[in-house]
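DM from R.C. (forwarded with permission)

"hey, sorry to bug you on a friday — could you get me a structure for this? deadline for the figure draft is monday and I only need the backbone to look sensible"
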Amino acid sequence: MDVARRWAETLADTKGVSLPKEQLEQLLLGVAKDAVLAEPDHQPAVLRFSKLYSASPVGIALADANGVIVEANAALGRLLGCRPASLRGREIPELGSAEHDVARLRNALAQLMTHGQPTQEERLLLDHSEEGPLWVDVTLTDLPGDRPGSTYPVLMVSDANEIHLLQERLLHQNVHDPLTGLPNGTAFGNALETALAGSGSEQVALVYLDIDGFKVINDGLGAGVGDQVLRGVAKKLTSVFTGRHNGSVARLSGDGFAVLLRGDFTPPEVISLVEQALEELVEPIYVGGHGIGVSASAGIVVRPVTDGGPEDLLRAAEIALHRAKEAGKAQWMLFDPELDARDRGRYQLGAVIAGALENGEFSLIYQPTVKLANPEQLAAVNAGLRWSHPDKGELDSDEFYPLAQITGMTIPLGRWLLAESLAATARWRNRFGEAAPDVCVRLPNRLAIEPDLVLLVKEQLDRHNLPAQALRLCTDRESILDGGGEVLDSFAVLADLGAQLVLTISGSDDLELIPRHGLPVRHVILSGAVVDALAEREDEADVRHLCQLVARAKELKLRIGAEGVRSHEQAERLRRYGVLAARGSFVADSATGDEVDELIERHAH
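My reply, with the result:
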C-alpha cells in the first residue's frame, strides 16, 4: 500500500504541467521495479504498472532475454503507424530503418545484456509503416525479472522527427547562403579542410570569382534586381562546375563566389572550365525586361592536395584574383609562385615605408632643368624622393610610390617632399637671391587628387615664407582625368595663389586637355616617344609631330620643355624646333642636396 501511495502522489504532483518524457521514463521504470520487488503486494503493483504502461505517451516495448519483443504499448503502435500486436516477435534491432540504425540498436542491446550498460538517449531512424523513416529518441534499459538476478530489456521511444527536422533546417541555414542556396563561407571552409586532409597524388583547385562592376547593377537597377542577378550567377556557376571533379560552388560575400575541385586534373583543364563559366556569365540574365550580362574576374590555384594548408590556398587564390582585376578585369589569372615571391618582397617593402620616413631614410634627389638657348642658365630644379634602404640600397620613387599608394603613405610622403623641397628653395633664395631657381615638384596621382592639396601647399609656403611663384607643381593626364579627386578645383585655386602649374604630355590629346578643361597651366613638358624619336636622327614624321605640338603650345601661350633628354645633340634638335628647356642625363641624371647647391652656384655665377 505504501508503494501505491508513493507512486500515486508522484504522478499526481505535476503542478499542472505535462511531464517531460525523461521523467515519465524514470517514473515508469520506478513503478516496474517496485512491482517486482514489492512483497506481499506483488499483484497490485503489477496492475499499477500495466495501467501506467498502457496509458503512457512514451512508446514502450518489453522484450525477453534475447531482445525479442513480447509486448508493445499503444503509444509505440501509434508512433510507428501499426498495431502494437504486430510488433510482437520482432527483435528490437529490426525496428531500425537503415542498416546503421539496426547496427546501433544491436550494439546497444549487446552492451546492455552483456555488460549491464543502459543506453543513454540516442537519436536514430525507425520505420513508420506508411510515412517511412522517422526520427526518434530511444532509451534502452533493463527491468528486473521474476527470478533473482534475471533482467529483461525494455525499449522506450519518443517522437523527435519535428525537432530533428527543425535542427536540420537551422543547420542548413547556418552553412548555406539564404539568397542563392549555395554553401556559405563557413561550409566552404569546412569543405576545403576536408579536401586537404587526405593524401595521395590528387590535385585540388580553388577558384575565386568576383563580379566586375556589380555595384553598377545594384545602384542602377536596385538591390532586388541585383539579388536576382546573383541567383542567376549562382545557377550558371553550379551548372558549369557541379559534377566535374567533385566540384562545389559557394557564395563567400556580396558578389564573391568560390569553386573547389578535387581529383585528377591539370591546370589547363581547370582553366577551360573557368573560361566556360566566364562565357556563360556574359549571356544576359533577363530581369524585369532588362537583359543583364555580367563579367567576372577569376583567380585560380591548382596544386597537389598535400602541398600546403587551407590558409596558403586561400591566400594564393585571393592574390590571383587581385592580379586578374589589376590586369583589366573580365579575365582569369593563374597563381604564379615565383611572381608571388617577388610580390612578397615588394609588399614587405611597402609595409615599412612609414617607419622609414620616421627614421630619416628618405632624402631629396634633384634633377636640373636648363634653358636650351643657354644651357648655363637653370630654368628650374626638379625635386623628387630617394629611399636609402638599409638592405636594398638606394631606391628611386618609381620603386616605392606604387607601394605607398597601396599602403596609404602617398600623402605623408608628399607632405614631406613639399616641406623639404620648399625648405631647400628658401635656402637657395637666401643664398643666391634672384639667381635661385624655382623648384618643381611632381605630384603622384594620389596627392594630385587629394582634396586638401591646396591646404598642404599653402601651409608649406607660409611656413618657409615663400611666394607661391617659387613653386612649380607638375601633374599628368591620369591625374587630370581621375574622377575621384578635385584636381581641377585645386589647380584653379593654386593658380590664383600664384603657383606655376605644369602638365606632362606625350601628344596632342594630352595637350588639348588644357583648353578643354580650362586648366590654368603655364608650362608643358614633352615626355616619352615624342622626345625619344629625336635621340638619334630627325625623321620627317617625328619632326612634323613635334612642330605641331610646339605650334599649338604657342597658340595656348604655354612654355614648352622636355624631359628624358640624353645628349647635347638631342637637346640641340629640340631647341631648333622650339623647345625652350630640358632636363635629362645631358645635364645630370640626378644630384644630391650638396651637388645641386654647387650646380646652382656655378650657374648663378
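R.C.: lifesaver. The chain has 25 helices and 21 strands.
me: no worries. The first strand starts at residue 59 and ends at 63.
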